[in-house]
From TrEMBL:
GO terms for cellular component: plasma membrane. Signal peptide: none annotated. It comes from the Bacteria. One of its GO terms (molecular function) is amino acid transmembrane transporter activity. This is Threonine efflux protein. The keyword Transmembrane helix applies. It is a multi-pass membrane protein.
């Protein structure tokens, strides 16, 4: 494994993080509605579980899903149900006023872990990226470094995002447009849930 492999992995990872998905939607919404501390905690939860999925991919979870398709189907179904449940809660609560720092950091962290945990496609994505970018025969040390690097990239991104969005101006704009932003986010989350369960 070379430094160039790590750079390419990080660029691919950042592109994946920036693509519209449940993790990015929830990180943005949590920061705008509950503040910087909760947004960073949500990012730590998302990053931790994403790194766990990468570790699982390095240990061959994709092979398990291929050998037992029902396990992947079950994981997708649970994940889709959770995303749709979040979407319903967002839609129903769109008109409810939110006070700053409503969500404790610990709760946001657990929400990030759970949200990422119910997305088995993260493991398959990680497996595909790892196979394409890194050479075969990685040592245990190399695998450990890849996982720690993944976690560091996720944390850096979500911390930076929370710092950027936690300004008073950003929060005022969110509060003014809360109904439309929350219902828009609900539609996105619901669509992602349906895509997860209906897609191959």
């Amino acid at each position: 494994m070379s430094f160039e492999h790590v750079i390419l992995f990080n660029l691919t990872l950042l592109a994946a993080i920036l693509s519209p998905g449940p993790a990015l939607v929830m990180a943005i919404r949590t920061t705008l509605s509950a503040g910087r501390r909760a947004g960073i905690a949500m990012g730590f939860g998302l990053g931790l579980m994403a790194a766990v999925w990468t570790a699982a991919a390095l240990l061959g979870l994709e092979t398990v899903f291929a050998a037992f398709p029902w396990a992947y189907w079950a994981a997708k179904t649970v994940g889709a149900a959770y995303l749709i449940w979040i979407a319903i809660q967002m839609w129903r609560g769109a008109r409810t006023p939110i006070q700053t720092d409503l969500r404790p950091a610990g709760r946001a962290f657990r929400g990030g872990v759970l949200l990422q945990a119910v997305n088995p496609k993260s493991a398959l994505f990680a497996a595909a990226v790892l196979i394409v970018i890194f050479p075969p025969g990685l040592s245990a040390i190399d695998k450990g470094l890849i996982v720690m690097n993944h976690f560091a990239v996720e944390i850096a991104f979500y911390t930076g995002l929370s710092m950027l969005l936690s300004t008073q101006a950003a929060q005022r704009r969110y509060m003014a447009a809360k109904l439309y932003l929350d219902r828009g986010a609900a539609v996105v989350m619901g669509a992602l849930g349906l895509r997860l369960v209906l897609g191959r």
